[in-house]
Specification:
By secondary structure, the protein is an all-alpha fold. It is built from two helices and no strands.
């Protein structure tokens, strides 16, 4: 019986601590939802994903292809 009482008290303490810390839960608790963050501009992850890099590479290849200019 004492073990059950300790378990119930532990659950109550955890719930109270979570509510006090503002951890997300089922109820909103009267708080307004936060505004969504603006999306950041998508950046290429690698040079071969960057269209500007590919254009510059193509331009250099045409210029340096060994043919007389």
């Amino acid at each position: 019986m004492p073990f059950l009482l300790v378990l119930v008290m532990a659950v109550v303490v955890v719930v109270l601590v979570m509510r006090a810390s503002g951890a997300p839960g089922r109820s909103s608790g009267g708080r307004r939802p936060s505004r969504p963050r603006p999306a950041r501009a998508a950046r290429p992850l690698a040079p071969d994903d960057d269209p500007e890099f590919l254009r510059e590479l193509e331009r250099r290849a045409r210029r340096d292809d060994g043919s007389p200019a």
